[in-house]
Amino acid sequence: MSTWESFRATGLASVESSVSVIAILGFGYYCRTKNIVTDSGEAFVSKLSTHIFLPCLLITEMGPHMTIESITQYWPLLLAPMLVLMLTYFIGNNIGHKLLGFPKYITAGVMFNNTTSLPLLMLKALGTTGALDVLIPEGGKLEDVVKKASAYVLLVSIVHTIARFSLGPIIMGQKEEKFEGETTPLLGGTAGRLEQNVETFYERHISKYINAAVIGGLIAIFIGIIPPLKWFIFDFTPMKASLTQAVTDLGELYPALQLFVLGAKLTAKPSVPVKPSYMVFIFCTRFILVPIIAISSVFYLRQANENVWTRDPILDFILMMTPAGPPAITLAAVAELGGVGEDELASIAQMLLWSYAITPFIAPTVAVAIQVVKGEYGL
């Protein structure tokens, strides 16, 4: 498989993803202009999505892949996203927001990229076209490679999901601390003071990180790291076919509904529209700078010590690929959890629309990553 064929396969997968996202946004926009969707209906669906459907999605997507083994054996897939998040936060907040005066949602757009649906779609396309054939070990099968790569992507997405919904509302919005003065403890004496101190600590330092999505993620982690519970929820047939399936069905409603509502918000004209400079900043960071740093870092560390982590070409490829790409479509949900206004939500919808229009430019990153890994392992 040549570099050009890898580039073409990745480009086509990116176009498919972009068209899918933009089409659903378009349906939402059309329905809002025809008053098929009203303001109250839009608000109701949006709240239902972020408080019910999204937590269900996180439980069923994260739970099956969060295990103690995955944490210990594939630690780079958990550590690398943390480092990328810190780097992109520094770029977005210090350069974008403080130096250039960009709005806070641009910081979030730079920081939280699409680490789930887009990479999974590209893996499927790359496998179909044969672009991943060069990464198949001797005696291996393409199906096993794609399955392993998909599992790695989901591990990366776990870190992003937790960070996005715990830190994102604070970065993007006006979620202020609600602690006011003293509260009257239910108990007297030492026990009462302890109760008050615990409540004060929670209000000041913990509550601002807690929301429906974070609770869903924590439930998924709790289920995943306890093998008997994980088996009961995801493998025990009566449970899997009933309650687990119901939660799965509810979770699957989230992606399309969230995009549909975002499309409806495009009818609103924000007071400060998304400027071309905002999109240039996102593009240069997430499609050029961060991919260069990711690919170079993995290559250098592997050259310096080939056993720095588990030798696996698919693992290296995912570490290089996942830092690239457009903002996550769940940023609108993050913004709502952060309490941002309708005006800013309309701006975020515009940002996502333009971001997915330029998504095919991720193709060079994926093509280069395949060739670098191929050279590293002599495949």
CATH topology: Na+/H+ antiporter like fold
Architecture (CATH level 2) name: Up-down Bundle
Instruction: Kindly provide the name of the CATH class.
Output: Mainly Alpha
What is the string of SSEs from the N terminus onward?
HHHHHHHHHHHHHHHHHH
Helix content: over 70%
Q: Uncertain segments of ≥5 residues (pLDDT<50)? A: 175-184
How many structural domains does the protein architecture include? Answer: 1
Q: Helix segment count?
A: 18
The overall pLDDT average reads 83
Strands, count: 0
* Shape by Cα distribution: globular
Summing up helix and strand content along with how strands pair, one would put the structural category as mainly alpha
Largest sheet: none
Give the termini distance in whole angstroms: 11 Å
Strand residues, percent = under 5%
Which value, in Å, is the CA radius of gyration? Answer: 22 Å
Pfam families: Mem_trans
GO biological process, one term: transmembrane transport
Organism: Yarrowia lipolytica
InterPro entries: Mem_transp_PIN-like
Q: Which features characterize this protein?
A:
single chain; 379 residues; mainly alpha; Na+/H+ antiporter like fold; 18 helices; globular
Report on this structure.
With 379 residues, the protein is mostly helical. The protein has one domain: Na+/H+ antiporter like fold (Up-down Bundle), CATH 1.20.1530. 73% of the residues lie in helices and 0% in strands. It contains 18 helices and no strands. The chain has helices at residues 3-33, 39-62, 68-73, 76-99, 104-111, 117-129, 142-172, 189-206, 212-224, 227-234, 237-240, 243-252, 254-265, 276-304, 313-321, 331-337, 342-357, 363-377. Helix 4 (76-99) runs parallel beside helix 7 (142-172). The protein is globular.
